[in-house]
Amino acid sequence: MAFVITAPCEDERAAECVEVCPVDCIQIGLEHYLIDPDLCIDCGNCVSVCPVDAIYHEDDLLTEDLPYLEKARAFFNR
Question: H/E/C letters for each residue in the chain?
């Protein structure tokens, strides 16, 4: 399981999440930051620093946010 960055990040690229990730699994995509679902260790550091509350655990995603998980998987070719 992994954390997923959702819609609020599309207009906000503050990148605090990148700075606190201990495994460097967050990269910038075309529209927003993305978390590599295979590298994410579920530490939650990124959640606590996100200024726009855009990061959710995969299990807690709303139906309308599921495409963001698929975008991350496609971006990292998984």
Answer: CCEEECHHHHHCCCCHHHHHCCCCCEEECCCCEEECCCCCCCCCHHHHHCCCCCEEEHHHCCHHHHHHHHHHHHHCCC
Q: Residue 78: its pLDDT value, please? A: 61
Q: Where are the domains of the chain?
A: 3-75
| Digit-coded pLDDT (tens) for 4-50 | 999 999 988 889 999 999 999 999 998 899 999 999 999 999 999 99
Tokens of 76: 């990292």
Query: What's the topology of domain 3-75?
Result: Alpha-Beta Plaits (3.30.70)
